Amino acid sequence: MGLLRGVRRVIQPALLGLLLAACAAPAPTPAPTANIDATGILLIEVGDEVQTGPLTRRFANAFSDAMAMAEANGDDLGYPWVDQATGELVLSVVTPRGRELVEEASVTVPHRIRDVAHGAAELQRIQDEVIALGQRGVTDSHLISATLPDLRDNRALIVISAMSVPLLEYLAETYPVDAIAVQVDPDRGSLTGP
To answer: Are residues 156 and 170 in the same domain?
Structure first.
């Protein structure tokens, strides 16, 4: 009988712990594994969802309003993003003024605020400059096929048709590495051809 009590003392707390763990709120979905190049640039796999996917009308309206606010206040706000895993509109703030703008906005969907290092204006400037690198004679700039916002990571996403160490080194020397991401997609081709 003493052995049975000893086993109960061990098993009952373990079962209670398992029951509590099973009833707890689900753990948040982890962020995609960061794949950082030797230059410090984030590499995005083809197919990674860095844009906002299909939205309900309510979320589409809230996202559109948040993007318009980010574009109008690009030094204070970064890119918004809809986190499909949590069902939240993610609002990116760079400065205290950006936080005030977000807190004063009438956001009608579940949302959260994240602090980011770069505003939408800076990220758009990087995208615009990168498209013109071929005119400056930057090595392998002909491999650039597109630039677009990486909403998930609040970066300028540069799509290239083939990996180029000299191009990544140039990008890392010219722009803050935490402001850019690169995706190698051979199916995209290039803007100017070989």
So the answer is: yes
Tell me the pTM: 0.78
In whole angstroms, what is the distance from residue 171 CA to residue 129 CA? Answer: 11
- In this prediction, residues 166-184 reach a mean pLDDT of 97
Q: Are residues 126 and 148 in the same domain?
A: yes
- Are 153 and 41 contacting, i.e. CB atoms less than 8 angstroms apart? no
Radius of gyration of the chain (CA): 23
CB atoms within 10 A of CB 32: 14
Hey, what amino acid is at 13?
P
CB contact at 8 A, 172 and 41: yes
Cβ atoms of 89 and 111 within 8 Å: the answer is yes
Nearby residues of 147 by Cβ (< 8 Å), 6 or more positions away: 126, 127, 128, 130, 131, 156, 157, 158, 159
Nearest CA to 185 out of 57, 51, 47 is that of: 47
Q: pLDDT averaged over the chain?
A: 83
Domain count for the chain? 2
